[in-house]
Amino acid sequence: MRGVFITRAPGGVPAAEDGGLSDLTMNPNFIRTLSRNTNRGWLGLLSIFLGLFAWQLVARYSGIPPFILPSPLSVWGRFMRAFNDGSLLHHTRITLVEILLGLLAGVIFATIMGYILAKSRSLERVLSPYLVASQAIPVIAIAPLLVLWLGDGILSKIVICALIVFFPVLVNTIVGVRAVPSALYDLMNSLHASRSQILWKVEVPASLPVFLGGLRIGATLSVIGAVVGELVGAEEGLGFLLQLGDFQYDTAMVFVAVFMLIALALMLYGFVILLEKRFLKWQEKN
Question: Which of 57, 99, 48, 56 minimizes the C-alpha distance to 221?
């Protein structure tokens, strides 16, 4: 195992010998990548700061009433009041539970159905008209029916979330499974691998990049599903809080609810990114 051995240079300054540390820090590619990532992070923070600053200037000097365009400071104050009285955390928890359950149900059902359709083109021809037609109907159009049939409880929101998540995950599952090279199937058959071994050793790893790409889309769309269900009929959740702020002309509360929904979407998207880094390390090595 290579290690880092510290010796004293002629001037008394420690120097690294025979170690990956000096090689790494002196590597131009490493330094260039680190500098590029740092610059991107600063640019992102700078763009957010400039956007908030411009928003503050417009809200203060444009003459627009606060009930139409509140300033960032008033939105922050409304956020702190809702956070301190516990209402924001309560409604956020309700929406998050709906999102997670709907996302889980939609992903499981879409993955199973996608794998079956990927293996049976005749079944795909039979079901594809219905699947495409289901996407032609906006969820907001059938959401009132789902709330009417399933009630205004959590079940209708979970179903709406699952319906929105279903199609992108389904399509990516089909594409991912069919993109597995036939040479890998020939290799596994020559080794007399069982059907389960082919599934877990070949099909799942090979289709995982495409599947996770669909999961990225589904994770962000699941937030929309929960909000649509809450706007149609709910007494709890961020969608309800958004609608309540709209009815009461509490525009700052509307902004707070919107920013919380954005935060939930970013959290779910970041979680999928972590999954990709965890399970797709072999792509980085290649």
Answer: 99
CA–CA dist 15, 5 (Å, integer):
8
Q: Calculate helix-pair angle for 154-178, 87-119, nearest 10 degrees.
A: 40
- Bridge-based pairing of strands 14-17 and 5-8 is antiparallel
Across-strand partners of 8? 14
Name beta bridge partners: 7.
15
Tokens of 156: 């209708």
Encode pLDDT of 145-181 as tens digits. 998 899 888 999 999 999 999 999 999 999 999 999 9
Whole-number average pLDDT of the chain: 85
**How do residues 80-124 score in pLDDT, each as one tens digit?**
999 999 999 999 999 999 999 999 999 999 999 999 999 998 998
